[in-house]
Amino acid sequence: MSETLPTVYEIQKVIAEADGIKTLVFKGNFDFAPGQFVMVWLPRVEEKPYGIWRTKTGEFRITVSAIGEFSKKLTSQKVGAPVGIRGPFGRGFSVLKKKKVVLVGGGFGVAPLLGLAERLEHCEVNFIIGARSKKFLFGEKYAAKMGAKVSIATDDGSRGTQCFTTDLLAKILEKQGKLTPQISGGVDAVFSCGPELMLQKVAQICQDAKVPSELSLERMMKCGIGVCGSCAMDDSGFCVCREGPIIEGERALKLVEFGKYRRDSVGERIEF
Ligand SMILES: Cc1cc2nc3c(=O)[nH]c(=O)nc-3n(C[C@H](O)[C@H](O)[C@H](O)COP(=O)(O)OP(=O)(O)OC[C@H]3O[C@@H](n4cnc5c(N)ncnc54)[C@H](O)[C@@H]3O)c2cc1C
Ligand code: FES
C-alpha cells in the first residue's frame, strides 16, 4: 500500500462494541505489526490516524471511539461505504515468544493490544482492561477467546474491580515478586495503550519493578510519514509517527512532554 496516496477499501462489517465504540472490518491482505497505525481518509471530510488490528489473515480492523466530528462520521459509515487507507506507519510492539506478559488497555486502546495478543505465540498473557463503566467496556470477549487471563477495572465498579488498571498491574507485579527485585521470576514485559496519564503510571510502576514496558503514544498527526513535524515531542523532535507510536516506558519517562501536555493542530499546548 502507498505511504502517500490512500487506497480505497469498502467496509465489510460494522460491529457495535460498546457505547460509542465501533469496529470497522475491511478485507485486505497487507502486512503490519501490532501497534502500527494507518491514516484513515473519509472523502470530502478529513484524514486521521487509527490503530489497526486483525483477528485472522485476509482482514484488518479499526476500532473507533466516537468523540468528535470525524470519529462520529466514521462510526456512522455503513457496510459498503468507501474509506481511504494509507499506511501502515510507525513502529509496532515487540512480538515475544514463550514469555509471561501483561497487557494494559484503556478504552479503544484495547484494540492494538488485541492485535498483539493474537501474535504472542505460546506466551502466558494477563490482559487488564479498563473503562469508566460496564457500558464503555470493550475487548473482554476477544481477549478471552485468544486465551488471555482477563481482569477488568471500572471506575464505578459496574464490572470487575472498582479501581484503575494500574492498581491491578501493581498487584500482579507485586505477586510475582517483581517489586522486590531480589526475588527472580515473574513477568517478562508489559505492553500498554490508552490515556496518557495511565501510560505514565504504567511506565513508572514497571520502571520501579524493573520490568521492561512498551507504550503506544498519541500526538497530533497530519502526514504520518515524518514530514510535517506536527507529532514531534520535546526539543529533541522525537517524531511519534516515525519513531513511535510504540516507545519503551523508560524512554517515555525521559520525555518532558510525556504525561504533561500535547499540542493541537496549530501547535498550542493542551495540558493533560
Ligand atoms: C497513532 C494514533 C492512533 C490512534 N488510534 C485510534 C484508535 O484506534 N481509535 C480511536 O478512536 N482513536 C484513535 N486515535 C485518535 C484519532 O486519531 C482521533 O484523534 C480521534 O478519533 C478524535 O478525532 P475527532 O476528529 O473525532 O475529534 P476531535 O474533537 O477533532 O479531536 C479530539 C482530540 O483528538 C486529537 N486529535 C484530533 N485530530 C488529530 C489528529 N489528526 N492526530 C492525532 N490526534 C488528533 C486531539 O487531541 C483532539 O483534542 C489515534 C491517534 C493516534 C495519533
Ligand atoms: S505526522 Fe507529520 S511528522 Fe509525524
Q: What is the topology?
A:
Blueprint (H helix, E strand, L loop, with lengths): L6 E12 L2 E7 L9 E6 L3 E6 L7 E7 L3 H7 L6 E8 L10 E7 L3 H8 L6 E8 L8 H6 L3 E6 L6 E2 L2 H11 L13 E5 L2 H14 L3 E4 L15 E2 L4 E2 H4 L2 E3 H6 L6 E3 L5 E3 L1
Parallel strand pairs: 7-8, 7-11, 8-9, 9-10, 11-12
Antiparallel strand pairs: 1-2, 1-6, 2-5, 3-4, 3-6, 12-15, 13-14, 16-17
Helix pairs in contact: 4-5
The structure holds flavin-adenine dinucleotide and FE2/S2 (inorganic) cluster (FES).
Mind telling me which CATH architecture of the largest domain this is? Answer: 3-Layer(aba) Sandwich
Bound ligands, each once = flavin-adenine dinucleotide, FE2/S2 (inorganic) cluster
The ordered H/E elements are: EEEEEHEEHEHEEHEHEEEHEHEE
CATH-defined topology of the largest domain: Rossmann fold
- The strand order across the widest sheet is 10-9-8-7-11-12-15
* End-to-end Cα distance: 35 Å
How many domain modules?
Answer: 2
Number of strands: 17
Radius of gyration: 18 Å
Structural class: alpha/beta
The poorly predicted ranges are 181-185
Helix proportion range: 10-25%
Given this structure, which CATH class of the largest domain is correct? Answer: Alpha Beta
Overall, the morphology is globular
